[in-house]
Amino acid sequence: MIDYNRVAKAIRYINEHATEQPKLDKIAEAIHLSPYHFHRMFKQWAGVTPKEFLQYVSLNHAKKLLQKDQTIAEATYQTGLSSTSRLHDLFVKIEGMTPGEYKKKGKALDLRYQFGESLFGPTLIASTGKGICHLSFVDDKDNALQQLRKRWTNARFGEEKDGHIEKLQQQLINKQEDLDEVKLHIRGTDFQLKVWEALLKIPAGQLACYSNIARAIDNPKASRAVGTALANNPVAYLIPCHRVIRKVGGIGEYRWGSTRKQAIIGWESANAENNDANI
């Protein structure tokens, strides 16, 4: 398993020294690896070299993806399919809770949770038994668990194994080469569920802006509300709020850290391009 902390540290160093265009040996030195081992580690994680990865996280690349999205967004959202990329909604199925379940905030519900690892750092995953209800990236275990309990104030919690959790943990560390359907069982308002379902239709390696999502749910004036729905996304990565950036092309904020968002975007872009090249 790749040490994501080293990857993140390298990305932060690159960002902080962007104007200097640091060479491989400088980046490697900053994360206490030899240039050879850093190059090998990074390519094993991203599928591309550090130099190539920089192209995928650049502002110019983000702007190009947004410009491309202006022409493909409507067709993609309408059909739910893409000719060039496999979409999240082909393997992620959302089941929204009933109004009664939503109101109870987990009353009489047994939530199982487990901490684990992923390509983008430690995770906390929880399941209702019907499906995954929570996935977050973890920097502090106590705080992560506290946030989960806060969302499900009336539920009973147990750090136990669960089939939904175990399957997802495998997919998060195996680069999703063989995707099985993942069922989500989540709490959200009707508006939030519409936003989260729209996010599933953004292909991996592509980006959208808030106004694109607002148009996709037939509420073009709701860009600000879309941003709020993204901030309340209970399932990181699978509901890909990381694929939404500001219209000017900046990466923007992310609930689990802007460096992690940049890492996911770059990783997905590199892998999507490699997949297209192999078709």
From TrEMBL:
Domain (HTH araC/xylS-type): residue spans on this chain: 8-105
Classification lineage: Bacteria, Pseudomonadati, Balneolota, Balneolia, Balneolales
Alphabetical UniProt keywords: DNA damage, DNA repair, Methyltransferase, Transcription, Transcription regulation, Transferase
Name assigned to this protein: methylated-DNA--[protein]-cysteine S-methyltransferase
InterPro entries: Homeodomain-like_sf, HTH_AraC, MethylDNA_cys_MeTrfase_AS, MethylDNA_cys_MeTrfase_DNA-bd, MethylDNA_cys_MeTrfase_DNAb, MethylG_MeTrfase_N, MGMT_N_sf, WH-like_DNA-bd_sf
Organism: Fodinibius halophilus
One Pfam family recorded for the sequence: Methyltransf_1N
Listed Gene3D superfamilies: Homeodomain-like, Methylated DNA-protein cysteine methyltransferase domain, Winged helix-like DNA-binding domain superfamily/Winged helix DNA-binding domain
SMART domains: HTH_ARAC
Cytoplasm in keyword set: no
UniProt cross-references to SUPFAM superfamilies, sorted A to Z: Homeodomain-like, Methylated DNA-protein cysteine methyltransferase domain, Methylated DNA-protein cysteine methyltransferase, C-terminal domain
Catalysed reactions, as listed in the record: a 6-O-methyl-2'-deoxyguanosine in DNA + L-cysteinyl-[protein] = S-methyl-L-cysteinyl-[protein] + a 2'-deoxyguanosine in DNA; a 4-O-methyl-thymidine in DNA + L-cysteinyl-[protein] = a thymidine in DNA + S-methyl-L-cysteinyl-[protein]
NCBIfam families cross-referenced by the UniProt entry: ogt
GO molecular function: DNA-binding transcription factor activity; methylated-DNA-[protein]-cysteine S-methyltransferase activity; sequence-specific DNA binding
A GO biological-process term: DNA repair
Enzyme Commission designation: 2.1.1.63
